[in-house]
Amino acid sequence: MKLGFYPVLGKSDFVRSKGEKIPIWQLLEYQPVGWLYSLAIKAEIVPDSPIIHDCGSFNYREQDIPTLNGKYVDAYWSIHRYRERSKVGDIIVCPDHLLVGENIRERQEYNLKQAETFIQLAKSYLPNRIPLAVIHGQSLSERLEVAKYLLGLVFLTGKLYRQEVTPILQTKGYETKVPMQHLAIGQQLAWIKKELEQEKQLVLDI
Q1: Cβ(34)–Cβ(52) under 8 Å?
Q2: Which of 44, 65, 143, 160 is deepest in the core (most CB within 10 A)?
């Protein structure tokens, strides 16, 4: 997964010229790293670029039972859809539910269950994709608890950020590590590249 700008892919991101559809990315002077493609839409033209496939949770944020186009959104449905539209090397995001409304606890339970199931399904059915679990919480400590449950965490942050966050982590019983503290820039990039090649990937939404 490369860091950079991933614009959202729309349903009809093209212009017509002499009866042909010309994708907007062919008109850009500078190309983005990749694109974000939501399950909530079906694009007429998809670029041959790295793509982050998203579950489209913003579209069902007001529904207590998440659905898209009349279909219940869960890990199994998402894996099936990602098999249809993703390619080798693409990033696929597990279904999640925004923590809004009154039924927060039910949404939190949904998020945790879907993350666990999705990561396991991705290993079996889409081993050449990169699965991401999205961590939600109403506070930093809540997000850390969920992240700790799903995957051991190492925070890669600057000194000023660590000064604020480390006391919170230590209060909650976490051990903090700074694996790149004494590494040169080239060594840091090599370390990050190696870690990103591991099977489990996690997005910490803080």
Answers
A1: yes
A2: 143
